[in-house]
Amino acid sequence: MEYRKSIADYIKARYAILVIESFEEERVLNELMIISKELNHNLYLWNSTQGVMYNGNVIGEKTFDLKVALDFCETKAQEGNSKNIFVFCDAHNYLTNSSNPIYRRRLKDFAFNIRNKGYRSNCVIISPNFEINNDLQKEITLVDFPLPNRTEVKRIISSFVDSWRNVSNVKVDVDENLLEKFVDAAIGLTTLEIENCLAKALVSDHCLDKNDLKDLLEEKKQIVRKTGILEFVDSNLDLSSVGGLNTLKKWLELRSHCFRPEAKKFGVRAPKGLLLTGVPGCGKSLTAKCVASAWNMPLLRLDMGKIFQGIVGSSESNMRLALKTAEAISPSILWIDEIEKGLSGAGGNGGDGGTSTRVFGTLLTWMQEKTSPVFVFATANNINGLPPELLRKGRFDEIFFVDFPSFEERKKILEIHISKLKRNLDNFDLNKLAKLSGEDKFGKDVVLAGAELEAWVSDSLIEAFSRKINGSSEADLQMGDFETTINRLVPMGQMRKDEFIKLRQWANQNAVSASVDSASHPTGNESFLGGRRIDF
Ligand SMILES: Nc1ncnc2c1ncn2[C@@H]1O[C@H](COP(=O)(O)OP(=O)(O)O)[C@@H](O)[C@H]1O
Ligand SMILES: [Mg+2]
Prior knowledge:
This protein has helices at about 1-10, 25-40, 65-80, 100-115, 150-165, 175-185, 190-205, 210-225, 245-255, 260-265, 285-295, 305-310, 315-330, 340-345, 355-370, 390, 405-420, 430-435, 440, 450-470, 480-485, 490-495, 495-510, and strands at about 15-20, 40-45, 50-55, 55-60, 85-90, 120-125, 140-145, 170, 205-210, 230-235, 275-280, 300, 330-335, 375-380, 400, 510-515. By secondary structure, the chain is of the alpha/beta class. The structure holds adenosine-5'-diphosphate and magnesium ion (MG). Adenosine-5'-diphosphate binds near residues 379, 413 and 454.
């Protein structure tokens, strides 16, 4: 196991303070126990109710005070040539910016002595949510401790299932095939959460079988949602629900099989991710929702706003938790919608004490180093707030620019939304409608966005319905409704024209047009389309 080796290496290299961020104290402790045996170190454990323990027995003073515990540990560290790992379970509560600075000082002193007096000891802090404050920033090393992987999840579920197999009053009907499905459903949860979910499934009807699969998956979704940062997005839309954006769709379709094991064997590197920028209401979020089902991968939406709200723990540790969960559930798509909302302070004077810069740094480093198959699907309506590092070549596989829809794209979008109303398309002149929603009607460079086209269709339907209610003989949706309602629309493109011209100028230099490739770029009136053209 990679993380076991990495923790052992830190200990051997005498890193003074390690912080292992995890909700799974027990699992981490088990690992540390194994490591301490392998390295022949004594393992001391402190928590705030039991004091310092060795081999399960309380030794020394039974203290809830971290300073007293650290004093005690230091005397142990000084003993002869002893090798020790001192594990602290509740220390994070004493080490926040708002707690008494004496605790941070005491820990720093201990770290200093470990380095300079040559103690063969390390401190390990286990914390679900560690706030790295300035005092300790240079002293601590954050160690990654992932959620249980497939093998571990399988072991947890198997041992639960086996323990109930021959119990009277309980029916367990789980074969190897179903077990694998349980594993898929449970991955992304902690050991305790998995056991709780299974116990709940069992208690509800004294039976554990294929009917519990759906509940298990639902439970997981609830639990992930409860972290308040990530959310599973269920969507059964596929890319045919997106009108236009052909270059982008082709790019995505080409990569739809790249997360399969065969792709890896073939030497294909799993795509890292893409950034979709551009005009609001033109299908960026819609594409994210569609790509997950097209690729048959779970879609996790990361709410950048909530990362910064700091309801649970610090912003950085929220970000780390989100990334860790996405990794555990991988192959997965991590959808960071409107990334600029959270990160507008990053790379500049955000006025938040550098928090957004650090959160952003966590994301960038992870994107750089990640090996797990998590595809990052980031969208941004406004590139002004985005730090240049994000846009640098190599962060994302590609940066696409989504502009207002072209004539052909408007036809397609209208077709999609009119079809949704279950109306016969033959009754509508799509060419005429596309013209009505474009430059012919609104003047140069002004056309309706996808969301506005959708709104136009619904307004027209309301118009038709109101005629029906008023007893008109022309009872259903028809072209005339569109012609009436278009006059009530004030296009966003008109109100924010200058903003979009600037955005397009940026896109011409920095992004690829999501809409057209140079071969098929229609020569009509779509001079406004921004972004470089690419060929496949
Ligand atoms: N290209 C498109 N094809 C079909 N519908 C679209 C398209 N663009 C926008 N829409 C409609 O407008 C809604 C809002 O678009 P959205 O994807 O949320 O825009 P944004 O680019 O701001 O993320 C979509 O849910 C969809 O109904
Ligand atoms: Mg959006």
